[in-house]
Structures
1.
Amino acid sequence: MNPHSEPTEPNSSDNSSRADNPSHAARPADPATPADQAPPSGSSGSSASSGSSGAAGGPPAEQQVTLRSAAELADALPYLMGFHPDDSVVLVALHGERGRFGGRVRLGIPADAAQWPDVADQLADCLISAAPDGSDRPTAILVYLCQEPGPGESGKDVKDRLRPLAQRLRTACGALDVPVLEALCIANGRYWSYCCPDFRCCPADGTPLAMPGTTVMAAAAAYAGLQVRGSLKEMEARLTPRTGPRGAEQVKALDTAAAELLPRMLRPDGAAGVRRDTLDLAEAMLGRFRLDTPTGSNRARDACDDALITDAEAAALILGLQDRLTRDRAAEWMEGSVAAPALRLWRALARRCAGGYLEHAVAPLSLAGWVCWATEDGPTARVTLGRALSIDPDYVFADLLHRALNEGLDPEPLRRCLREQRKEQTAVSGSGRTAPAQETPRPGKRPQPVRPGTADRPLGPRGGTRPDARTTDGRRRRRAGRDGDRSRR
């Protein structure tokens, strides 16, 4: 188990929140996501701007949300993560005397209880000891255990079964001199406290969670424009390959496409042709997706997207995107009007990687994660890239994106680089400087005769009497080489 790190991203409204239990404060920033650690927010203190105007020319007025009970802490979890973290253990760091929310780590609860001690030690160490700066060391920890009851179980059964894990987490944090302020179990629409022994406020049957949208945290999140994107299982279901008869049909299409692709790749210009055909087909699919925008639930929208692309088209795109240069060119579709259809297309392709082609899903998943990050949807980006890395932990593109996202880097430099690359490709295509074809002179063009006595003339600024074709052609070939090198970076 090696939790990935994940930053708390400051959002545009930068709302603050304070958790008083009984007197500590907490600050949530942009929702974190299932990727597994979020370092503390860069904001100082227990309050931040909520978007209201302050004095003229000065900073905006600060607004705070205070969380005073275990019920409000339980209600705040989806807003901290950006989704409902079902089947997860979540640790949240608190900083300073007022308990500002900081880093978060999340991991799926291991089914084998024998792994719990090691998991608890590593999660505590990841959140507390691995802080980038010693000054960011947490002053307290909140622990959440979220799991729905299994067959024949009740929520109380889940709480009792997970009690040893909660106790081990408290011990692991205490061993690092950081106390666990509250440990909550959330199951079946109720919550229980592992820290409060008073049955008057924490009954044995648990306490019902607040109705969605009725709490102070929900109001603050709505004001700040923060979104809860459903449950983690629902988000992952949108990326899961199809099974059953439809999955078998897609596997047949992939087998057929792979058999046809191999002879093409063995030709001298086969790789370039496959790249060109893959990108042309992807552009055609983007146009199709743009013209048909589905509505309804996520499941209904995904079903409509699946119907827009045939098995053969999906197979050709999936195999073509395994080429790194093709994938990097496809990454240019990441903003503006093309971003939404591109995200839908990459998700649809990931769902088509059925059977033994599961590893082929890493390329479209990485592209989907990049589009989410580029469009400032950090929670979905982390879920998507986490899914890609769970299939292939060594896939460099997904790993680099995941690390950059978790370290709180701005995607704009990469967006700018891709924009410039797109402009260069468009300019090269528009001017006809594409290739080896330029090395042959155009038919019907007569060579210019050399005038007598010009051999001894010095060359002028534009090459004098030397033929332009040789100089221009050499320059073009060098430019093509540099462009090729640039695309490989």
2.
Amino acid sequence: MRKPLVAALFALAIAGAGAAPAVAAPRSAPTSAGTGTAAQPASVARTATASGTATIQAVNFAGTVSLSNCSGSVIRFPSSADTDPALVLSNGHCLETGFPSPGEVIVDQSSSRSFGLLNSSGSRVATLRASKVAYSTMTDTDITIYQLTKTYAQIKSSYGISALTLADTHPVAGTAISVVSGYWKEIYNCSVDGFVYRLKEGDWTWKDSVRYTSACHTIGGTSGSPVVDQATGKVVAVNNTGNEDGETCTVNNPCEVDESGNVTVRQGINYAEETYQIPACFGAGNKLNLSASGCVLPKP
């Protein structure tokens, strides 16, 4: 799990977990903003060429957030209204009250957690605050979704920052992506290498995970970073883990399990959890509805 060790141990102490995952130890801060150029006002900026074909500019930090121990982003769904309360997406293992146990689903839990809102260059322009944890789990996926005290319109009006939109279709292998860490202010650029039937780490198992090509060598603190499709600017996954030591299915060393039960270990390769299934579980006003048609997220 990609979050700093000190924060992880604190979370473990709170949770009182015995077999909860330890996480990646922090490393020195990057000296630059990665290979991405963060100088545009939107997550992905486009310019027209002489032939009229749009070219993709680098993904930047606008709309991402820094947490006390992880990364995240202000997100909206295709059907969200500007007047809806804004949401922040991060990992389930970034939850401030500790790692959700296998099979555990948390909904409507009170929270006043704060988030540092970043602009396109990675500068912190505001502090946003949660009103509650709308949804959190580490079962089948690894997500926490916070509801904020401000609407999208209020954030846009006050700080000039728009939310990132979650794609509601399955990501595609070969897609060029950027993993944008608000914690480190670092952008990792690579491609979707493929999909993992089951990704197992310690006591946790995730379904249909995204595997990156080797260029996205994410580190501790990148947990919860949005994975952005460079062609659309939409979020297609949330960064969450990688195999550090070549061990098999242990904490910090997830393994791939195929439909026949065959296990593959890819040391140095990192992963994310898909997010296309999330929009179907939220209705008008960004209200969670796990009984909605098409909603496949685990239920309490």
3.
Amino acid sequence: MNDSTVVLPWLVIRQDDNGSRYRVGRYATRAEAERIADSLDTRGHKQLYFVERIDGPDDDGGRTPLP
């Protein structure tokens, strides 16, 4: 498998106190994404971390805020 065929449909999202959402990372499996979200969540910050599945390719590499 080359890099152009790697599928990373699971996102870890951070939501701050103002409701702004940002992509933290993309992962191949839900379990992997949930592990990352759980580890970030246990750090005691006020941000909320959660997992979402996407259906299509990500054009910007997750660098822009979500709506």
4.
Amino acid sequence: MRHATPAQIARGSVTVISVTFVALILAPQASGAAVALIAVAALVLGVVAAVAVRTRRRAAAPARQPSSPTAPEQPGVRV
């Protein structure tokens, strides 16, 4: 398995932080269980956001086609 790139780490981290802040602002009187649920949901969304960078980048990369065979050499001719 490949290591995460800096772009993946940054995107996942920003997603976790922003989702957590927004959820806690929307539910200021949340209980301990609700805060834990918000934190877990934010972490899951962060992982999904980080993996989405890798998936999209792979899909956008053009597929390599096998190299075409070269013309057969003619005997006695050197280049």
